[in-house]
Structure formats: C-alpha cells, structure tokens
Design brief:
By secondary structure, the protein is an all-alpha fold. The chain has helices at about 1-15, 15-20, 30-50, 55-60, 65-90, 95-115, 120-140, 145-165, 170-190, 200-220, 225-230, 235-245, 250-279. The chain has one domain (about 1-279). Helix 6 packs antiparallel against helix 12 and helix 6 (about 95-115) runs parallel beside helix 13. About 40% of the residues are buried. The model has no long low-confidence stretch (mean pLDDT about 85).
Length: about 280
C-alpha cells in the first residue's frame, strides 16, 4: 500500500503539472526551463546534505563511466522539459497527454531494437495500433503531431539511456542537473523578465525533485507491472486538464486517434501479463 500511495502521488503530480506551468504564462519557456534546472539543483543540494550523501554524489558524478550515459540523458531530459513547458504555453496540452501515452510504447520498441528484448504478439500489435492512431491523426488534421512525437521520443530515449546507466534516480538527476546548470545560468539571466514571480519559479525545484523521490520509494515497493499501469495516471490527468481546464479542442479525429492509443496501451498491458504468466 505504501508503494501504491507513493506511486499515485508521483503520477498525480506529473499529471497536474500543466496547471502550475500555466501560472507562468508570462515567463518565456527557456527561462522556465533554466529556473527548473537551477532550483532543482538547489533542492537536491539541500536534500543530499540532509541525508549526508552530498559528498558521495559529488564524487560519483565525476565517474567517466556514468558521464557517458548521463551527459546525453541530461541533454534529453532538458529537451523534454523544454518541450513540455513550450506545449503548455502554446495551449497544446492534449499533445502532451498523447506523448505520454505513446512514450512507454516507444520504450518497448527501443528494448526490442537495441536490447533484444522479446515482445509478446499482443505487444507487437499494440505498437502497430499506436502507429495507426498517430497516422490517422496526421492524415485527418493536416499534419503529423510533431510536438507529441518529439516529447515521447525524447522521454523514451532518455528512459533507455537511464536504464543503460543503471544508477539510482537521485544520483542520475543530480548529475543531469549539474550538466544542465551552466547553460541554465545564462538562460535564466538572459530570458527571465524583471516582473517574473520568483516564488513560483523557485517552486519548480521541489515540484521536480519531490515526485522523483516518491517514484524511488514506489519503485522499491511495487512490481514493475503495477508501476507500469500507474504511469497512465499522468497522461489521463493531462488529457482532462487540457479539455476541461484549458478548453482545448478535441474533435472526432482526436477521439479516433486517442481510442487507438488507449487500445494499444490496454493490449500492451495484457500482453505483458500473459508473457509473465508463461515465463
């Protein structure tokens, strides 16, 4: 139950995050990204110092074996954070939701292509059904949903690199924020408007760090299948926020595409269960 509570808290916070970024509409996305990195770094310094782990993390951050994975993963998560904020500022949260429905399916594809992981027949069909949904949306709305695909691709590739790095989430985030901190300083100075709400900007640090700490607890107490199912809380809430709170358009073409994606997610979950039972 503890793992479930922490897992729900993690994905709920990520699901309603667009509401927070909407409060920063007057701040350029690049400035929000910069402050998110810098205030997250401050949060991590305080947290690691409190736990007596700051010196150890600083020492491990210089490990070349880790840096070869965490430098590119840091650049990818920075890109993902920017695209997320940019999509919210452009009132395209529906695409954010679509991205995080697609992302686990792309992660499965990377596992198939690069890690030689076996997929059940239903899981393979789920990938095709998701691709069909995206293709339908592209053909009927006059263009490919590039924003959704870019967010999904950046996050799924980031997840792949983090899996290869094989480090705990707190150390990985520490190194990634260090990687991004130098350009973040210049972006914060160059793009932060004088009238920005500094209290809201500073809040981005704990809003980034706390859910990841909760995720670490959930990951230690839950089976991967349970954690995998809980992750769909986030895009579901993002979808509800987009349609109900931000009144973004959602027509027949979106309904068909999302139905394909939801069906793909369900098939993937069933395929995962059958694969475990036969193992």
């Amino acid at each position: 139950m503890r793992g479930v509570l922490f897992g729900v808290a993690t994905y709920f916070s990520w699901g309603v995050l667009p509401l927070y970024f909407h409060l920063l509409d007057d701040v350029p996305p690049l400035a929000i990204l910069a402050h998110r990195v810098l205030w997250c770094l401050v949060f991590l310094v305080v947290w690691l110092a409190f736990r007596g782990e700051l010196r150890s993390c600083c020492r491990r951050a210089a490990d070349p074996g880790l840096l070869r994975w965490l430098i590119p993963s840091g650049l990818l998560i920075g890109t993902n954070w920017y695209l997320f904020v940019f999509a919210v500022s452009e009132h395209r949260v529906t695409e954010v939701a679509l991205a995080y429905y697609i992302s686990p399916l792309l992660s499965a594809l990377w596992g198939l292509l690069f890690l030689r992981e076996h997929l059940a027949r239903l899981q393979l069909f789920s990938l095709l059904l998701a691709a069909l949904g995206v293709a339908y949306l592209a053909l009927n709305t006059g263009g490919v949903p590039w924003m959704a695909l870019a967010i999904a691709l950046s996050f799924s590739t980031y997840s792949f690199l983090r899996k290869r790095a094989g480090v705990e989430s707190i150390l990985g985030l520490w190194v990634e924020t260090l990687v991004l901190s130098v350009p973040a300083v210049f972006l914060a100075v160059g793009y932060t408007p004088a009238e920005a709400n500094w209290g809201l900007l500073a809040l981005s640090g704990p809003l980034t760090g706390i859910p990841l700490l909760c995720f670490g607890v959930a990951a230690r107490h839950l089976r991967l299948v349970t954690l995998g199912l809980l992750q769909y809380i986030s895009p579901t809430l993002q979808f509800l926020v987009a349609v109900a709170a931000f009144e973004e358009p959602f027509g027949k073409d979106h309904a068909v595409a999302f139905t394909c994606i939801w069906g793909a997610v369900a098939l993937y979950a069933v395929g995962s269960r059958e694969r475990r039972q036969s193992a």
